[in-house]
Design a protein that fits this description.
The chain is 41% helix and 18% strand. By secondary structure, the chain is an alpha+beta fold. The chain has two domains: 2-49, no CATH class; 59-134, no CATH class. The strands form three sheets. It has a three-stranded antiparallel beta sheet. The chain has a two-stranded antiparallel sheet with strand order 4-5. The chain has a two-stranded antiparallel ribbon with strand order 6-7. The longest helix has 12 residues, at 85-96. The radius of gyration is 21 Å and the shape is elongated. 5% of the residues are buried. The mean pLDDT is 84.
Length: 138
């Protein structure tokens, strides 16, 4: 795959092959590894593979996060959201943030600002979710 740095991000060439010489002359660099572009950088014309993000104490399994939400959100509130298009769209969008190719597999970063914003839509706080996940040991 050919990559190039554009505005602090590494992007991959998605067009038809132009041939090695043409690609290199156009500023593209051949990358033969397997990492996604989110784990690459280009420094002094060389592709650098970045380490996998390390889980911190705030990285939690998505299954634990979802389990806490099920326990904390009353069924009637879930039903009300499902019937309200204005509330359903942000709720579904919030669920989309639960996976990312930059995150460790099956984990969610509770410190991601979008998590707090999404929890506010359902009147929950991070502290409530943490407490539920730890069985009250937070």
């Amino acid at each position: 795959m050919y990559v190039k740095k554009e505005n602090e991000s590494v992007i991959a060439w998605n067009g038809p092959s132009l041939g090695r010489t043409a690609m290199l002359e156009s500023g593209w660099i051949l990358y033969t590894g397997t990492l996604p572009t989110s784990r690459l950088d280009i420094v002094d014309g060389a592709v650098i593979e970045l380490p996998e993000p390390e889980p911190t104490s705030e990285w939690v399994p998505i299954s634990a996060f979802i389990g806490a939400l099920y326990a904390l959100i009353p069924a009637e509130q879930v039903a009300a959201v499902m019937q309200n298009e204005a509330a359903l769209k942000p709720a579904l969008a919030g669920l989309a943030l639960l996976s990312s190719d930059a995150a460790p597999g099956g984990m969610i970063d509770l410190l991601d600002q979008r998590v707090s914003e999404w929890l506010a839509l359902v009147n929950l706080t991070l502290d409530q979710v943490r407490e539920q996940m730890t069985g009250g040991e937070a």
